[in-house]
Specification:
The chain has 98 residues and is an alpha+beta fold. The protein has 3 helices and 2 strands, in the order αααββ. The protein has a two-stranded antiparallel ribbon.
Length: 98
Amino acid sequence: NGGYHPFLYNFTINSCKFLEKPKNSLKKYFYDLFASYSNINHSCPYDHDVLVNELPMSFLNSKVTGYLPFTKGDYVLKTSWLAYGINRADVTVYFSIV
């Protein structure tokens, strides 16, 4: 239909609280996409850069299309990363499901 589809999920995660008690299954799902390929998997405080390194696209593809109701099309994932009330990074990921 041209353009990107409206948002499928829209939520906020307080990472410090989430890491203390990771109960919400949807938030845990998104955390698990990156945790084993990053240095995010520890409790607060975060006083260093957060890195995602060597995350295989095949891993993401199997996790995204295998568990969430995505249809073929173009998508965008926009995230804002805040620490201590300050926006530290805006990350935008564009991807297509064919």
